[in-house]
Amino acid sequence: MGIKTVLFDLDGTIIDTNELIIESFKYTIERHLGYIIKPEDVTPYFGEPLPITLKRFSQDKWELMLDTYRQYNEFNHDKYTKIRKDVKEALELMYKNGIKMGIVTSKRRELAIRGLRLFDLEKYFKVIVALEDTEKHKPNPDPILKALELLNANKEETLMVGDSPYDILCASNAGVKSAAVKWTILPFNLLEEAKPDYVINDMLEILKII
């Protein structure tokens, strides 16, 4: 069967929020724990729910850190968020060719929609499965299974695209094909170890897979 449904991670895949996330972590950890982190201290955890990452740094203060992170992140969201130049073109071509598309993210719905609207991308996606929509999150299959249910899509005809091993493992656990993006900020060997079905160098390569 061909690919008729494409699911995308959001941060680092559709929109570039790497700088925003790093700066949010730096600010939060310096304020609450008193030291300055390097990007490589947090990038391996990109893609997992924020509370889990913050607990890696402090089991005692993570809830306070969560509030601080979210306040800083929301205030600086539009300043630091960017978009890859090939994203809109690829999404437009898939949309015109009848491909059903959805977002599967560990981000809160409110901020996910804000990021999409910043670049007029919301119109391309039939569903957004966000942090609030499932009890279990990537790499568990639940977020993708929820998206498939909402889209009335078949596993065999679905591709998940992401920049994190959590995306690839989520796809594998849900029984759908996966594509790892080479523009990830994470060490790429982490994605390779998750065994994606495809590796893409730019968004337009999804059209070749389809």
From TrEMBL:
Instruction: Output the SUPFAM superfamilies linked to this UniProt entry.
Output: HAD-like
Is S-adenosyl-L-methionine found in the keyword set?
no
Coiled-coil residue spans: none
GO CC annotations, alphabetized: cytosol
- A single MF term (Gene Ontology): inorganic diphosphate phosphatase activity
Question: Pfam families per the record?
Answer: HAD_2
The record's top EC class is hydrolase
UniProt-listed GO biological process terms: DNA repair
Q: What InterPro entries does the annotation carry?
A: HAD-like_hydrolase_sf, HAD-like_sf, HAD-SF_hydro_IA, HAD_2, HAD_sf, PGP-like_dom2
Question: EC number(s) for this protein?
Answer: 3.6.1.1
Q: Which UniProt keywords apply?
A: Hydrolase
What NCBIfam families is this protein classified in? HAD-SF-IA-v1, HAD-SF-IA-v3, PRK13288.1
Q: What name appears for this protein in its UniProt entry?
A: Haloacid dehalogenase domain protein hydrolase
Q: What is the lineage of its organism?
A: Bacteria, Bacillati, Bacillota, Clostridia, Thermoanaerobacterales
